[in-house]
Amino acid sequence: MNWQRHALCRHGLVLATVLMLAPGMPAQAASLAQASGELWSDKPKRVETVDPSLERLPAKPAQNSAVKPDRYPLKLKRAVPYQVIDSVSFMQEGRKYRLADLEPIPTAKTCRSADGQRWACGLRARVALNRLLGGNLVRCAPHGERDGFLLVECVRSGDKDIGGSLAAAGFALAPKGKARYRDEEEDARRQKSGIWADTAAAN
Prior knowledge:
Number of helices: 6
Helix content: 25-40%
Distance between the termini: 133 Å
């Protein structure tokens, strides 16, 4: 029985070989390989994972979350002269600016010193703003508009607040309901600086 099974296996192997070598079979195999591409190869072949016909968009640069936005994005031109209107308002290149959260000292205001002498404190206040602006790199933060003026918070070299400097010198007023420069104004009152040297203003 074992020799009969062995003979049948050999017969089947021969029959399969004959069928593979039958006329027309290599041509069919070749056409199949041509239609579906190479079935296998002994050489490395690059496989395209992305359709080359599709448009490839440029990669967006990664945003650096550590970079903080500029608090004072408005840079005034140092080489262009300022036109000072009053102690908290000025103009440059036709644009009018006003320091936010402050009220001006009227330019025509006069003050009286302790010895009774009158002096032009309003004009002195305007000159104080002119000195703070002139020759300095001034950076500002816009805070809306009012009466044709752009309300700004400005600093000069060394990040010194221009509005705070004016209030501390007694040359600008903190309006009622605004607490931002109230401490600077109180210091000027105690030291009798600027307009607070006037006996009428101090009372």
